[in-house]
Amino acid sequence: MEGRLNHTPFTATIGWPQPPHLFFFFVVLFFCKVQPFGTLFVQAQSQEGFISVDCGFEGGSRYQDNSTGLEYSPDSQFINTGENRNVSENRFSKRYGTLRSFPNGTRNCYRLSPVQSGNKYLIRAGFLYGNYDGQGSSPIFDLHIGVNFWTTVKMGSAGRFVSDIITVSQGDLIQVCLVNTGTGTPFISVLELRPLLNFMYPFANASQSLVNQERWNYGTGNQVRYPDDPYDRIWDAVTNDFLVLNTTNEVEVKAGDVFLVPSKVLRTAVSDTRPNLDMTIRAVSQSPGARIYIVMHFAELVKLNSANESRQLNIFGLNGQVLLFPNYIAPYLTADHKEIMNVALGGSGSYNISINVSSSSTHSYMINALESFIVRQMNESQTDDRDVSAIEDIKRVFRLTGNWEADPCSPKEYTWKGVSCSGYGDSRPARIISLNLSSTGLDGKIPTSIGNLTALASLDLSNNYLIGPIPDILGELPYLQFINLSGNEDIGVVPENICQKMLEGILSLSINGEPKQCKSGHNNNNKQKIIIPIIIVVIILLMMLLVVFVWLIKRKRKKYSSQGFSNEQCITRSRTTEENSWKRKSVQFTYAEILQITQKFNHEIGKGGFGIVYLGNLTDGTKVAVKVLSSSSSQGSKEFQSEVLLLSRVHHKNLVCLLGYCEDIQHLSLVYEYMDNGTLRDHLSGDIHNSKLLSWSKRVNIALQAAQGLDYLHNGCRPPIIHRDIKSNNILLNCELVAKIADFGLSRAFSNDYATHITTGLAGTLGYLDPECLNSKLSQKSDVYSFGIVLLEIITGQPPHSNSTKRTHIVEWVHSKFQSGDIKNIIDPMLKEDIDINIARKIIEVAISCTSKTSEERMTMSNTVIHLKQCLEVIESHKSSMQKSNGTLDFESSAPTAPSDR
Ligand SMILES: *[C@@H]1O[C@H](CO)[C@@H](O)[C@H](O)[C@H]1NC(C)=O
Ligand SMILES: *[C@@H]1O[C@H](CO)[C@@H](O)[C@H](O)[C@H]1NC(C)=O
Ligand SMILES: *[C@@H]1O[C@H](CO)[C@@H](O)[C@H](O)[C@H]1NC(C)=O
Ligand SMILES: *[C@@H]1O[C@H](CO)[C@@H](O)[C@H](O)[C@H]1NC(C)=O
Ligand SMILES: *[C@@H]1O[C@H](CO)[C@@H](O)[C@H](O)[C@H]1NC(C)=O
Ligand SMILES: *[C@@H]1O[C@H](CO)[C@@H](O)[C@H](O)[C@H]1NC(C)=O
Ligand SMILES: *[C@@H]1O[C@H](CO)[C@@H](O)[C@H](O)[C@H]1NC(C)=O
Ligand SMILES: *[C@@H]1O[C@H](CO)[C@@H](O)[C@H](O)[C@H]1NC(C)=O
């Protein structure tokens, strides 16, 4: 027994209680009894629903424990990792003679089933080191219940550790996981699961479990467990030097009692002959920072003469400092309970209770039983059930091992290799959003179960030995944006729905060589053999027609006409195939036309990095923005044209559409779609006169749209386009407040010749400039940095450089506030609405990642899109359900619990 017991009548030093394991040398078979339960009579449970596992036991069948009659089974049906070992010394019962140890893997889990989702269970794990490995030193490791921390396993002086937890099952399976924390090989000797009734221990619920610290049965020398306790709680015996009170009468349990303490436990108690003494109980020890829950069980066992006898208890908590229950009188031969809930322990990690009696009492203190627990928050999100079954199937098909054990997403530090998830710390289940099995030697077909990962945004199966076909179902995944199958031999044709999404610019697919022609529909092979050549012929004919058509149009345009190039055409053009779009050319305007469109540069609407922007009207009335590039270019007209052609090929709903250009050597100009609502900067600073303030969800939406546009430049274009000058002035809003990125491609095309306007001599604008770019070359990550600054502007409403002397740069300012946990004051004070702090924190985390000093630390635009999308989803769902979160997160220290021996 460990030094955990501190029951002190006055100041006497108390010896240890007798060893709890007194063997009853008889076999108790199917012991049934009827327990009084108010007016109800509930038959005590048989072993129904019990799971009793003797870990490492290799016998073929169950065996019965001599003292309890419980049947223990071998563990092979609950786990398939680890190895069986025998302990060299065991003075406990047979089940401690063998163990299963786990030299491989960080997390190994027992899967206990069947259990019922939402039901309450008591689960107990026992560990006897017994020098099984000859090392002579016992390991320390963690125990998890599902995805949540249970306790740290640390053998006591007897070399043994036992812990039980009262928990609510989240599914039809409870996993008990042993986690290697780098301090020795985990092992386990015994694992027991006992169903409780759901009304028992109401303080345990789906979001918090109770880890037992002490379970004392006072006034007896014998431990009580099954069958006396039908729920098989183990009540350890305590007598010490106390006066023992006992009775042969049954102690009654009132209707509505939620603890159902067995009569055998309540029939004994401790007291003293002298009334004026204190009893001190150390109910919890060595658990600094923990939140605790204590239940004291009482039943008066002495028939007191009401005329002249009394026992009025004063129960003090908090190490004697607070009188919790004054003048308490326990009912005669009836179970009663006093609870101390949710106390947070300070640095000492101990909680003492003192019991004395009021001055008028003729009898001394008394207590029958006590239980104490550490309250564990169950706040890790389990992974969505369907994701789990899909990824388990993928694991099976590809025979994946490594850390692919237990929950795929949670806890975060043990997420499966190659798997990324969203939704940590949410009440909702975690979802798998990315799967990267690149270069893992996979072979065979691509399993269709990937299609069940419905939150998947990115799939990388590159550099394996996979063969086609690509399952159609991948094209139906609503969030899937990237598929990388390059470096696989024979992937075959691309399903039509995937082709369609690629054309729409919402999915990018990498496979060896050029994407093969799209598979059409679900035709069978015979039909395909005929249909494919026909389609090819038709396509060729169509393309020839198109070429002729385009040529005709171009000739016409050259003559004179600029009609018909409305925004709408821009949008429809963005849906055309890449092959087709490269043949299309932006409209070429003459200088005379530009003069007419802009009415001789009559209406200036802005001054960008590359020149002045004028408002213009096409002949059909469509408003356009004409950017006249400043100063003449030494760049040849041919190069200008090729750059413009390149840019006109880039179409995305979040990129400002280039409608045409004028090649006049003195007046190089670009004609863009007109964006009614101006720049994002104007809206954040409130510069636009009567602009309404952008709401929180609008802002997140704008951030997401800008991220999508940028992501398309980085990942949807070949070669990738680096913007080099992302800032809130380059993010424009149209009449529906859809954000589009402007000026993309210009830095690269013109920086040689228009360097004068660029603040840094390189590219970009001060305040948005990647701190790395001065010593290394610009990359996509430089855009990510600038985007991060824009995101911070959106969150805070502040420009990157405030004129106030208090702050230097927005990144440092936000960083210091974030580290001090001051999320509320980061957010734009103009936003009056209630903002979910958790979501705000997530978005700030994204921005902080984007603005990391080194580019390696920054997330990619693709990941930014994924994160923002999820945040927006949550915001929208909150908005629609009008549910507001109070935003309190409860972090609990994972202090090791005091070991207790059972
Ligand atoms: C149980 O008791 C029987 C006799 O009472 C004995 O033969 C047997 O070995 C015991 N089993 C265990 C596991 O101790
Ligand atoms: C642990 O890994 C080693 C090396 O991969 C292997 O030989 C051994 O069998 C594994 N042990 C168990 C229990 O899985
Ligand atoms: C009650 O306690 C006394 C003193 O310990 C003991 O001798 C006696 O056997 C006990 N009676 C019962 C019914 O447990
Ligand atoms: C995938 O989902 C379907 C329909 O929901 C289900 O029938 C199937 O069992 C799932 N497959 C896997 C491997 O989870
Ligand atoms: C565009 O046309 C509108 C009316 O159709 C006119 O009011 C406006 O001044 C024109 N602007 C320019 C720049 O041509
Ligand atoms: C955006 O533009 C539309 C049309 O020009 C206008 O009705 C709307 O008020 C503008 N929104 C904001 C926030 O300025
Ligand atoms: C900062 O700018 C705001 C608005 O532009 C102005 O009102 C304020 O006086 C400026 N503060 C300083 C210290 O320059
Ligand atoms: C936040 O919680 C408090 C009590 O904890 C409650 O009174 C209040 O209504 C809650 N606020 C919201 C917005 O749910």
Automatic annotation (TrEMBL):
This is non-specific serine/threonine protein kinase. InterPro entries: Kinase-like_dom_sf, Leu-rich_rpt, LRR_dom_sf, Malectin-like_Carb-bd_dom, Prot_kinase_dom, Protein_kinase_ATP_BS, Ser-Thr/Tyr_kinase_cat_dom, Ser/Thr_kinase_AS. GO terms for molecular function: ATP binding; protein serine/threonine kinase activity. ATP binds at residue 627. It is found in: Cell membrane. It is a single-pass membrane protein. CDD domains: STKc_IRAK. The chain crosses the membrane at residues 530-553. Residues 883-902 are annotated as: Disordered. Its EC number is 2.7.11.1.
